[in-house]
Amino acid sequence: HMDEYEFENLTIDQHGPLAVLTLNRPKALNALNSATFGEMSEALDLIVDNAEIGALIITGAGEKAFVAGADISELNGLDGVYAGREVALAGQDVMSQISNLPIPVIAAINGFALGGGFELALACDIRVASPRARLGLPEVTLGVIPGFGGTQRLPRLIGAGRALDLLLTARQISAEEALQMGVVNYLADEPLAKAREVAESIVKNGPIAISLVKEAVRRGLDTTLDAGCEIEADLFGMAVATADFQEGTGAFLAKRKPEFKGE
Ligand code: CAA
Fold first, then answer.
1. Which residues line ligand 1 (CB under 6 A)?
2. A biological process (GO) annotation for this entry (predicted)?
3. Model-level pTM greater than 0.95?
4. Backbone angles phi, psi at 103, to 5 degrees
């Protein structure tokens, strides 16, 4: 069972088909250092290998922060082009591991989501934020730039104009403003509870279809409309070849609830 695994900087809990990964480094407001990235990668492998898990929620321990960014004391020790590039690539790998998961991933943003913390939320599929959360990309105030996908995922999500405003001014935005911008999907006083509710509404659906939707959107964002539509047609064909498709359409016609088996 997943709860048995011991990590230093995070916990993973399983609630039926839902897994919750909680970043937990209270002394640094859950900031991401290299040890935490290593543990996240291991935890994600465990989650993806567990066939019972249909959705993942990522959140931060405590009241104050989701994740306050990359660990600045670790960054401060970096020296030279190669060391910097390696840190960015290592963080990006974990962010891609998240966005490539075949199950939906929901960020429950319980407080500050700054720098790498904002980038972590952007690697998730859906974002739920506490009204008390604050989001921002303060990297330029530190003389650096986002390195965990922020300059790429944010403009894809909200457009280059709004992304550049946040990237260049480094201003913090409220959860309310993030909602208006389309950075977050939902505001909720209890973001973890709301994230669970959203996850429950997803795991009722066909799991293969869910993973194919994620793949279609992800691959489509990397290409032209025509090529993306071709990808969509290929994946549509794969969906149509599943037993879940027979079950879903058959259940509709028989006026009953479908029972998807992920086959
Ligand atoms: N890395 C390391 N330690 C951090 C940290 C971080 N990103 N964020 C906070 N901490 C530590 C603080 O140093 C402090 O430690 P001490 O108690 O030992 O002094 C502790 O967490 C509590 O933080 P504060 O005292 O600063 O708390 P606050 O309420 O005054 O402020 C905050 C909260 C606004 C979030 C502030 O902590 C802050 O600005 N943090 C840094 C945010 C930031 O710049 N993140 C971007 C990092 S760069 C990045 O992410 C690069 C990338 O993309 C690759």
1. 28-29, 31, 68-73, 91, 112, 114-116, 119, 138-139, 142, 144, 146-148, 150
2. fatty acid beta-oxidation
3. yes
4. -105, 155
